[in-house]
């Protein structure tokens, strides 16, 4: 983003409420140093600034760009990823899905769609689903794991999204949007939770009852 030095002015937009890209916690971000001002490129331009995470364990710095007309953040560094609880997730599945989240946060939507598809492949491999391709493996998964029919249908739709993204011959690969990948990530999170995390949550609940 190119900003003319002649239009830059010092200002203060105060604290900013957002989620920390370092520790993942929500918070009201404060100034890192008292004499570091925000910069504005004018009433129709952008505001640039830096804040610090209020979490005393983290204290990570966040660089932001804000639209001065709407006073909302539209870009940050590091990028803020969609939150994801990785407890109880096998390493290969966790690292693959986290790469999909990283791609999405950096606005690399085609790459994110491909990694979502790869996440499904890793889930099928981990659960021993068989087949010559991912479509057959997802069909096999229906007999191995207990999932709502809607999530199993969603897995097949996610397979198609990632497949379109991976092939340049597809007319759809260049049209994958933020909202399309965002809902795909939400569905993948639900599939992961249902397969790997609900059982652990139930075990924790039963342990609490036994110890109470």
From TrEMBL:
Residue ranges of every copy of the DUF4145 domain listed in the record: 99-172
InterPro entries: DUF4145 (IPR025285)
Pfam families for the chain: DUF4145
Protein name: DUF4145 domain-containing protein
């Amino acid at each position: 983003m190119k900003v003319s030095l002649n239009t830059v002015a010092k200002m203060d937009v105060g604290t900013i409420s957002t989620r920390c890209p370092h520790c993942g916690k929500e918070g009201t971000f404060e100034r890192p140093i008292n004499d570091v001002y925000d910069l504005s490129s004018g009433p129709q331009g952008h505001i640039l600034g830096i804040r610090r995470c209020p979490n005393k364990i983290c204290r990570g710095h966040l660089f932001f760009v804000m639209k001065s007309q709407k006073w909302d953040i539209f870009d940050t560094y590091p990028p803020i990823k969609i939150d994801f609880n990785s407890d109880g997730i096998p390493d290969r599945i966790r690292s693959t899905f986290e790469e999909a989240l990283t791609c999405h946060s950096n606005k690399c939507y085609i790459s994110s769609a491909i990694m979502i598809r790869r996440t499904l492949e890793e889930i099928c491999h981990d659960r021993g689903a068989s087949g010559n391709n991912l479509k057959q493996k997802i069909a096999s998964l229906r007999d191995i794991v207990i999932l709502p029919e809607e999530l199993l249908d969603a897995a097949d739709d996610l397979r198609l999204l990632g497949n379109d993204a991976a092939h340049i011959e597809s007319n759809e690969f260049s049209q994958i949007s933020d909202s399309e990948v965002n809902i795909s990530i939400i569905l993948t999170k639900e599939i992961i939770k249902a397969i790997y995390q609900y059982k652990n949550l139930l075990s924790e609940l039963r342990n609490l009852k036994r110890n109470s």
